[in-house]
Amino acid sequence: MSHNVWKCDNNLPDWEVKGEDCSAFVRAKGMIRVYAETQPDIIGLQEMSPVMSDHIIQGLSEQGYRYAMLWGKDTPVLYRQERLELLDSDFLMYPTEVPGLDGEFNNYGTKSWCCAVFKDKTDGKKLIFMTTHLWWMSGDSASKEYQAGSDEARVFQLNMAMDRLENFNNIYNCPVVLVGDFNAGYTEPVIHNALSRGYTHAHDIATEFADSDWGYHYCFGDGYKPYVREPFEKGLDHIMVKFAPEGFVRRFERYTPDYYLPLSDHSPVFVDVKL
Rounded to whole angstroms, how far apart are CA atoms 184 and 201? Predict the structure, then answer.
């Protein structure tokens, strides 16, 4: 699963006026419900604060779920201890500056990747898993959130991540799953670059079900709005795979129950894979 949980620890004035609560304490209860209902073996997170981490880990434990957390600052990894053994790991915060580009491309040090190599305790098979959060501003000059070089910065960042994944694969020789908030749609340069390096989008190779929705809705400091379906190509949250056998991805799905609306703008996206 890939899940951007919205880094907001305290309730905000606009929410309080409406009788709502967007604090990490309240929203974590909804996240725990999501994980209890979907029961992912591995969750790659983005925008995770220490406060939210504590609430989620404690809440899962109270419900009998034994998840461990691999530290990765804003991009940690949660995994089920009874199923998976952690063999190796690494973390990198993306540099603020990108060679050849003007400006800064890591707001508040939130953009990073965290990588883990797991062994399935049931059969010994291995998996390399990485979660990442890429630069957020638009590369479209017509956008109000435009910053020159944004597309190039995302490509630069993801190339750094994919280079590290290649290193891990040279050691462990097993499938790679790369998940995260790429802050870019399917048709944008960062995805094209990943495809050119041999990655495949999980949506495109799912054998049983491929969700056609984008998994995004309005949920910010001034409140939230109902979910509006948009095409898959507009989605910002992606799951890419490489070095995987045929039939590796069974399902590609976004989780959008009504109770999720006040939890985060990004809906969780997950895949069912067979090692």
Answer: 13
d(CA 275, CA 6): 31
Residue numbers of the domain that contains 226: 2-273
Q: State how many domains the chain has.
A: 1
pLDDT digits (tens, 9 = 90+) for 109-153: 999 999 999 999 999 999 999 999 999 999 999 999 999 999 999
SS3 category, 183: coil
CATH number at residue 78: 3.60.10.10
Mapped onto helix, strand or coil, the DSSP state of residue 243 is coil
Candidates 96, 158, 170; CA nearest to 131 is: 158
Residues in the chain: 275
Q: Are 86 and 47 in contact (CB under 8 A)?
A: no
CB atoms closer than 10 angstroms to residue 145: 11
The pTM assigned to this predicted structure is 0.98
First to last CA, the chain: 16
Q: Count CA atoms within 13 Å of residue 220 on its CB side.
A: 4
- Phi, psi of 181, rounded to the nearest 5 degrees: -90, 105
**Neighbouring C-beta atoms of residue 250, cutoff 10 Å:** 16
Six-digit token string for 234:
């507009």
Q: Quick one: tokens of 244?
A: 């995987």
